[in-house]
């Protein structure tokens, strides 16, 4: 065994594992027309460093050949003949993969598995309340439920290309609804159930959806959110034609508007379990997912069908070393891209067993994650550093009292993982035996970009390590925009060429797609993150360099919080920055200038916190509000956020050049009254 390989690069017999490419399907010339006869693909991805290096090299030197082969891991109705047509050139950004192929995503996630794994569990549903029985949903049952759901949507007039908004708890119906849209070729847009009615309304309106799917209530952490009530409020701001399809979850009382609201169960009772699957183009949209950018308006990231599915499946298999019969658990919510790629599409296209958890890590106590791992014999566990930090603050007994011997791989996502959290995860949860894959990626990227592969990558606490196949990270000098070509480098993180899972555009805003991602550094995709590359060529993400903050792994534009604050009648002006927060990674620090007739008081702090929470959602509640008689501005009126960040971080000695400020004295006041000293 080569000395740089970690111990898990060998199998039980001490023989190095090899990273096998997905098995080739039996094909002579053309791919089969009848996709139901094609065997599902579940390859062993056990890795070693040499094989990773060779495969990575091949993916970069011959992307056409590499992806032509790996594109076959899914079933095509009409096989593609063109593999890749991509350009990041500023005046000609376009991304197309497998463009002349056609497929159906739901058929890939369900039908093709039925012959061999109809009785295998596809989804394990673990409810919020541990006393409520879990559900094991087989692939056959999944097929029936998705067929019914698709027929209900069809009866409501949903057609190929139509947008459907989902606002649901983490229940199987969320997956059914996503897959039902995919079956019809409709485009889903899942809105996180923790978002406010206003946030929901703006997403319904921007996407032009004519239907929103919700549930009566959403149990979470022993409390119930009135989801239907939120939809009622949202729909006051939407077109009268928008319908609301309601799934029963809690059985609670709901308000009802005839001709608009429909009980799912009533329609499903008479719906057939068979629904014809639409043939969609590889580049037809599969979903829109709204995420935060540098302005107040969320961006509708558009993912298409073929390339996304190939990439979600491949990263799920390789990054987590998913093996036949393993139980995979990603703790994210389907309201985020992590849930799309690693609860639903990646696992299901691979014929895997995926856990859907409705609850929170600390209910009924801080042992819940580990109780669920024991109960369902979880093999791969994927969560966020913020959850790990929260749990490591509790007694280790919450972990050690459970049998976690089935765990093989641990994953981390959402923000840089600090070494203390990494070590606790490794030692207390993984007992030093489970490789930790720290997966760097984004809503926009569809799947992992930079991540370790179990067995293939030497792990370092806090490093995302190496690029996935086909991904070409570069580090640029932020000022000159030049590539830094030395092995050791620090700067902004960009990507040189496209991989199949990258977004294709922003919904209804092709110009912003180019200006947000391809304009600052011409010829590259700009991630918005800072990054360091060490002497071994490993990548360490250092955090966002734009006006986006990362609160408990949730991405938020500071501008969104600012516009919520200034919408309050007592607020004249607001500037929002992130600051280091022990549990959340970053907290929300708001500088607020009040209207002249408003009095700064503790009550007003609480009022503004509650206000932002209501406007955006609980995750956006400000941690700190500092009254600011004035904000540091340049003579041209631009707020100097760099200074506000430093004050919030309590780094007041290194404020840098303040000479361009219109009134330097405001800075002294802000320093004197800063929240953290
Ligand atoms: C931003 C993207 C992709 C799923 C979850 C978040 C940060 C994400 C890591 C990581 C360091 C990370 C980046 C990125 N981020 N994963 N492993 N190490 N930072 O998706 O909401 O689109 O946020 O999350 O800053 O740009 P998202």
From TrEMBL:
It catalyses: acetate + ATP + CoA = acetyl-CoA + AMP + diphosphate. Keywords: Acetylation, ATP-binding, Ligase, Magnesium, Metal-binding, Nucleotide-binding. CoA binds at residues 220-223, 338, 552, 613. Mg(2+) binds at residues 566, 568, 571. Belongs to the ATP-dependent AMP-binding enzyme family. Catalyzes the conversion of acetate into acetyl-CoA (AcCoA), an essential intermediate at the junction of anabolic and catabolic pathways. AcsA undergoes a two-step reaction. In the first half reaction, AcsA combines acetate with ATP to form acetyl-adenylate (AcAMP) intermediate. In the second half reaction, it can then transfer the acetyl group from AcAMP to the sulfhydryl group of CoA, forming the product AcCoA. This is Acetyl-coenzyme A synthetase. It comes from Thalassobacter stenotrophicus.
């Amino acid at each position: 065994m080569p000395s740089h390989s970690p111990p898990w690069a060998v199998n039980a017999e001490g023989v190095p594992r090899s990273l096998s490419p997905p098995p080739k399907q039996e094909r002579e010339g053309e791919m089969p027309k009848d996709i139901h006869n094609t065997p599902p693909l579940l390859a062993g991805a056990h890795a070693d460093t040499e094989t990773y290096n060779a495969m990575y090299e091949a993916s970069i030197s011959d992307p056409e050949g590499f992806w032509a082969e790996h594109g076959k891991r899914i079933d095509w109705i009409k096989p593609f003949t063109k593999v890749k047509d991509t350009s990041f050139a500023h005046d000609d950004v376009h991304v197309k993969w497998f463009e002349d192929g056609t497929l159906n995503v739901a058929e890939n996630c369900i039908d093709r598995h039925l012959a061999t794994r109809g009785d295998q569990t596809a989804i394990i549903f673990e409810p919020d309340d541990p006393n409520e029985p879990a559900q094991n949903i087989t692939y056959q049952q999944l097929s029936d439920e998705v067929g019914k759901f698709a027929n209900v949507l069809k009866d409501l007039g949903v057609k190929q290309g139509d947008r459907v908004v989902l606002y649901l708890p983490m229940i199987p119906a969320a997956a059914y609804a996503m897959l039902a849209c995919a079956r019809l070729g409709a485009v889903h847009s899942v809105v996180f159930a923790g978002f406010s009615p206003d946030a929901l309304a703006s997403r319904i309106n921007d996407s032009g959806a004519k239907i929103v799917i919700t549930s009566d209530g959403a149990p979470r952490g022993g409390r119930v959110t009135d989801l239907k009530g939120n939809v009622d409020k949202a729909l006051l701001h939407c077109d009268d034609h928008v319908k609301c399809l309601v799934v029963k979850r809690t059985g609670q009382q709901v308000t009802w508007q005839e001709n608009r609201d429909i009980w799912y169960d009533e329609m499903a009772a008479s719906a057939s379990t068979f629904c014809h699957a639409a043939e969609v183009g590889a580049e037809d949209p599969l979903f829109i997912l709204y995420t935060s950018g540098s302005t107040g308006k969320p961006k509708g990231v558009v993912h298409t069908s073929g390339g996304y599915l190939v990439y979600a499946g491949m990263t799920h298999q390789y990054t987590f070393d998913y093996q036949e019969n393993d139980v995979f658990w990603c703790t994210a919510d389907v309201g985020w891209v992590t849930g799309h790629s690693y609860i639903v599409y990646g696992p299901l296209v691979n014929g895997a067993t995926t856990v859907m958890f409705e609850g929170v890590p600390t209910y009924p106590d801080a042992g819940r994650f580990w109780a669920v791992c024991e109960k369902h014999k979880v093999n791969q566990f994927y969560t966020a550093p913020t959850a790990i930090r929260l749990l490591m603050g509790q007694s280790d007994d919450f972990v050690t009292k459970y049998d976690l011997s089935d765990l093989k791989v641990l994953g981390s996502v959402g923000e840089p993982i600090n070494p203390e959290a990494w070590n606790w995860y490794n030692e207390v949860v993984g007992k030093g035996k489970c490789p930790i894959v720290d997966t760097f990626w984004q809503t926009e990227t569809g799947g992992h970009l930079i991540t370790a592969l179990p067995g293939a990558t030497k792990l370092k606490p806090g490093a995302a390590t190496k690029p996935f196949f086909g991904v070409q990270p570069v580090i640029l000098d932020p000022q000159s925009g030049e590539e830094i070509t030395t092995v050791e480098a620090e700067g902004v993180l960009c990507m040189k060429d496209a991989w199949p899972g990258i977004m294709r555009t922003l919904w209804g805003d092709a110009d912003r797609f180019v200006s947000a991602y391809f304009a600052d550094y011409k010829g590259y995709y700009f991630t918005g993150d800072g990054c360091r590359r060490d002497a071994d060529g490993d990548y360490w993400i250092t955090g966002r360099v734009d006006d986006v903050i990362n609160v408990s792994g949730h991405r938020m534009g500071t501008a969104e919080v600012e516009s919520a604050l200034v919408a309050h009648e007592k607020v004249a002006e607001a500037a929002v920055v992130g600051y280091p927060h022990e549990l959340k990674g970053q907290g929300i620090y708001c500088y607020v200038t009040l209207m002249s007739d408003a009095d700064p008081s503790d009550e007003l702090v609480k009022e503004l916190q509650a206000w932002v929470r209501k406007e955006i959602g609980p995750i956006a509640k400000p941690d700190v509000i500092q009254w600011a008689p004035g904000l540091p501005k340049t003579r041209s009126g631009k707020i100097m956020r760099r200074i506000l960040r430093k004050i919030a971080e309590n780094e007041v000695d290194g404020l840098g050049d303040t000479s361009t400020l219109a009134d330097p004295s405001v800075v002294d006041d802000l320093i004197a009254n800063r929240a953290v000293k």
